[in-house]
Amino acid sequence: MNRSFGRFDFAVMVTVLCFFDDPDAAMREACRVLTPSGSLVVAFIDRDSPLGKKYGARKNESVYYRQATFYSAGEVAELLSRAGFRTLAFRQTIFGDPGAMTGMDPVREGSGEGCFVVVRADK
Length: 123
Fold this sequence. Notes:
Blueprint: E1 8-14, H1 23-33, E2 34-45, H2 50-58, H3 73-83, E3 87-93, E4 108-109, E5 116-122
Parallel strand pairs: 1-2
Antiparallel strand pairs: 2-5, 3-4, 3-5
Helix pairs in contact: 1-3
């Protein structure tokens, strides 16, 4: 088995975090394969957002989300910190009902208002 360390400058996880059986292990593995100056980008639906709450309330009705575990931005920050990531930069978008959108929402720094959150975690 190839156990190479530090081979990649960046890795990306888009809307998959909620499906990992062991998210801590996934974050540690991402950290392991990144170069010392590498970055991980994680994009997810914030559990505390209106959309996250809607998906959480209906997850048992959905074949797609039945096995999902949604996370808040704070919980994702904790996962990343435990894995060894030090610098976190959050961005957010989708500030209303996605089904009622007539155009693109802006991207804003931080988290806590947008339904879709992206965090860049640097080693």
